[in-house]
Amino acid sequence: MIELKIWGLILSFAIPMILSPGPGNTILAAAGGKFGVRGTLPFWLGFESGNFLWCLVYGFGLSQIVKAHPFAYEVLKWGGTLYILYLAWCFFRSSAMAEQQELKPLSFFDGFASLSLNPKVHSMILVMFSQFLNPALPLVAQVTQMALVFVLVGFVCHFVWIYCGQVLFSRIKSQAAMRAQGIAFGICMILVAAFVAFS
Question: What are the sequence ranges of the domains in the chain?
Answer without folding.
Answer: 38-198
